[in-house]
Specification:
The chain folds into two domains: about 70 residues, no CATH class; about 70 residues. Helix content is about 45%, strand content about 30%. The protein contains two helices and seven strands, in the order H-H-E-E-E-E-E-E-E.
Length: about 160
């Protein structure tokens, strides 16, 4: 049975229903008026209202989807934080700043080493390297850095 057959069957059923109404002429007019009233009431109560309700439900679902997508895309979720600690070796030979802190993932922190009189800066060790008194560390995990100094030898 195809789509057209179903349509034709429906039309045939409607015609037979009309024939049944015609066989009872006194009730035909009442039934027709009652059907009209039901259709009008249905349109008033459900037609536009249910369409609006369906639209609101669809928009709500789409809105939730967009909100989730936006939260993921714009990194609304908190990024991890990592700690940075900087030590000085030997402990009384100089200063390093900043000496500690918590930083977000991907932050770049510039460390500066300054010797006290009688010492000179030698190098960075641990999670940083180099012989310049300033170095930049990219925070992607917990970091431990040591600023190494030595006593100035006069000859």
């Amino acid at each position: 049975m195809g789509v057209l057959d179903i349509f034709r069957k429906k039309k045939t059923d409607e015609k037979s229903a009309q024939v049944k109404h015609e066989t009872q002429p006194g009730q035909q007019k009442q039934t027709t008026e009652a059907e009209k009233e039901r259709k009008i009431a249905k349109k008033k109560e459900g037609g536009r209202f249910s369409w609006c309700r369906r639209l609101l439900i669809v928009l709500s679902i789409i809105g939730i989807g967009w909100a989730i997508w936006f939260a993921i895309q714009s990194s609304c979720l908190p990024s991890p934080t990592y700690s940075l600690s900087v030590a000085v070796n030997p402990s009384d030979s100089g200063n390093a700043s900043p000496s500690y802190g918590s930083y977000s993932d991907g932050a770049q922190v510039t460390l500066t080493a300054a010797p006290v009189p009688g010492y000179e800066f030698v190098s960075w060790s641990g999670d940083a390297s180099g012989t310049s008194p300033t170095v930049t560390v990219t925070i992607d995990s917990d970091k431990e850095v040591v600023a190494n100094f030595r006593i100035i030898q006069y000859t």
